[in-house]
């Protein structure tokens, strides 16, 4: 699968963020990415601004997201793993 389009849109209804699984209320600016896959056809994901920034800060994850496909909630899970790796205070 690959990302064929990505742009910022103002939502016209509530959307669940694909990255962190938060429900983002109507009227919020989100990033809408369109993907194409030989097997699954075309579909769209919505990410909140926070996840969008997270992908910019984590290019490896962004690459995985755009070219290999990731599970819903992948940013949420990545953040969980990061916090587990963090040294204890
Ligand atoms: Zn998010």
- Main sheet: strand order: 1-4-5
Summarize the biggest pleated sheet.
3 strands, antiparallel
- At CATH's second level, what is the architecture? 2-Layer Sandwich
Based on Cα principal axes, name the global outline.
globular
Bound molecules: zinc ion
Mean pLDDT: 91
Low-confidence spans: none
**The top level CATH class name:** Alpha Beta
Task: Please identify the structural class as seen in this structure.
Answer: alpha+beta
Describe the model.
The protein is α+β, with helices and mostly antiparallel strands and 89 residues long. It has one domain: first zn-finger domain of poly(adp-ribose) polymerase-1, CATH 3.30.1740. The protein has 3 helices and 5 strands. Strands 1-4-5 form a 3-stranded antiparallel sheet. The model has no long low-confidence stretch (mean pLDDT 91). It binds zinc ion (ZN). Zinc ion binds next to helix 1. The site of zinc ion has 8 residues, from helix 1.
Brief synopsis:
The chain is built from three helices and five strands, in the order βββββααα.
How does the SSE layout of this entry go?
Blueprint: E1 2-10, E2 15-16, E3 23-24, E4 29-37, E5 41-47, H1 49-57, H2 59-67, H3 74-85
Antiparallel strand pairs: 1-4, 2-3, 4-5
